Amino acid sequence: MAPKMDIDEEEPAKEETTAPKPKKAAAPSASSETASPHPDMALAQDIHRLTMVHAGKLSAEDATSIIGCTPEELLEKVMARVGTGGKSLEEATKANEAKYGPKPDEETEGEGKKEEKAAEGEEEGDDPLMNPSLYRHLVSSLGYAAPSALSEADLKSLEEHHTAMLKHLDDEVTKAKDEAGDMEVLHAYMDIARYSARCSTKDAALEAYDKVLALPKLSVGKKLDAHLEMARVSFFWGDVKKTKETLESAAKVIANGGDWDRRNRLKVYQALSFLLVRDMEAASKLLVEGIATFSCTELCEYPEFVTYAIVTSLLYLKRTELKKSIIDGSEVLQVAKDIPVVIRLANTLYECDYKAYLHALVDLQPHLVANRYLQPHAGYLLREMHVLAYRQFLDSYQSVTLESMAQSFGVGTEFLDVQLSRFIAAGRLTAKIDKFGGVVETNRPDWKNARYQEVIQKGDLLLNRIQKLGRVVDL
Questions:
Q1: Nearest by Cα to 321 from 375, 285, 362
Q2: Could you report the per-residue pLDDT of 126-176, keeping only the tens digit for each?
Q3: What is the pLDDT, as a whole number, of residue 114?
Q4: Which of 10, 30, 281, 299 is the most exposed place for a label (fewest CB within 10 A)?
Q5: Average pLDDT over the chain, rounded to whole?
Q6: CA–CA separation, 119 vs 96, rounded Å?
């Protein structure tokens, strides 16, 4: 049975006629090792967008505007990346064997070096995944039936090829145990885990990382790196439960030590995990903290991270903090041109330009749907942002006419009446509507008096308990 997924990616840079500049592999800020580029979370975003288009939740026009190419073009790019990269099956497997397989014998060393050189011509992050499991899933879920599609026989040949490559990597582990030290053994096990994350199933990759974590004498930093890569595998395949368990284990590991860079990276992973389970307040706190220290480019790009921070912080930050951290934040301003919709949303809310704010919400909707972390909560976020604007507007008045409020928001009075009635009935707005007079009256809660009454009530309970305890002592 094909694994369930809800994933997608950023579009790769357009190819130039001259040799393109190679993309730098994502590297953990706290480690000299190169972080595994697999699984590729940008690819996960692209697959999610294709899924939304295929399901009719994202229009082709909106998708083209967001990703910079048509869904049909993106589908071909994704399938080529997941498959053999546009090469023939024989060419792809030879290049993969030259990179990951046994070194050639002296007789064939010349030919082997040529193949290895060709394989090294591609950055590791640009390698075709050659993942049969993921390819089958996408063919089934996206209805891919192009003439260039890999056949079932091709996919079985890929599986056999990967079995042979993993056997070689396993032999390297045995060799490292017999002839080398602990660090070489760790690297050999990590090679298997990272190869599985690229070419195999979720379960196979997680099992390989479990073997890494089971190694003795593993430092806190290495344990955390393995946990984070393991969490990324769970993120890619949409396994929220496993992601949560892995990050909880990582938090226990880093409690025993670890540098600040790794701590900051863990917070980014935790923030996106909170997003998935709709704990927006916890996510907002970590996201805002991470704006100045972000280094997890293997998980998402910086503009995407800032988008998450803005969307969640609008719901929870006070105006003064919103102004300081978001509106005037230097890091946010540096990427403002890359995320104009969410920047406009934040600015119009702060400036109380409610008509423009609602227009920004309309523009934001397809971006929420096109994002794999925000799409499950798109309706919730849009509803909460409407409540936020209505509450901010009503806080300035003791009473206001429906017509005046409707003009401020650029909507009809009937639409506004329905929206306000629903939010008031749900207890989200402290107001009441005088339908006959066409007036909205606010009922501001007296928080100071409510707290005073609460203290008096709890004080009475405490005195009663003390009196009961006194009687028992007297006896």
A1: 285
A2: 789 999 999 999 999 999 999 989 999 999 999 999 999 999 999 999 999
A3: 43
A4: 281
A5: 86
A6: 7
DSSP 144-197: ---TTSPPHHHHHHHHHHHHHHHHHHHHHHHHHHHHS-HHHHHHHHHHHHHHHH
**Could you tell me the maximum CA-CA distance found in the chain, to the nearest angstrom?**
99
Q: How far apart are CA 10 and CA 46, in angstroms?
A: 6
Distance from C-alpha of 88 to C-alpha of 157, rounded to nearest angstrom: 12
Do the Cβ atoms of 60 and 71 come closer than 8 Å?
yes
Write down the pLDDT at residue 372: 95
**Residue type for 416, please?**
L
Say which range, 110-124, 225-239, 271-285, has the weakest mean pLDDT.
110-124
Dist. CA 208–CA 236, nearest whole Å: 16
Q: By CB neighbour count within 10 A (0-12 exposed, 13-18 middle, 19+ buried), where does 375 fall?
A: buried
Q: Quick one: average pLDDT of 450-462?
A: 81
CA nearest neighbour of 37 among 299, 373, 372: 299
The pair of three-digit structure tokens given for residue 100, joined into one six-digit string: 């990951």
Type of residue found at 48: H
40 close to 85: Cβ distance less than 8 angstroms? no
How many CB atoms sit inside 10 A of residue 257's CB? 12
Cα gap 475→464, rounded to integer Å: 17
The 8-class DSSP code of residue 59 comes to -
Task: Give the pLDDT confidence score for residue 117 in this predicted structure.
Answer: 45
Return the exposure string of 147-185: e unless at least 16 CB atoms fall within 10 Å of the residue's CB, then b.
Answer: eeebeeebbebbbebbeebbebbeebbeebeeeeeeeeb
Long-range pairs for 315-320: beta carbons < 8 A, 24 or more residues apart:
315/280, 315/281, 315/284, 315/381, 315/384, 315/385, 315/388, 316/280, 316/281, 316/284, 316/285, 317/284, 317/288, 319/350
- Angle formed at CA 317 by CA 312 and CA 322, multiple of 5 degrees: 100
Tokens (6 digits) for 127: 């390698």
The span from the CA of 356 to the CA of 344, in Å, is 8
Helix, strand, coil in percent for the chain, rounding step 5: 65, 0, 30
Measured in residues, the chain has a length of 475
Q: Which two tokens stand for residue 80?
A: 């080529």
The model carries a pTM of: 0.83
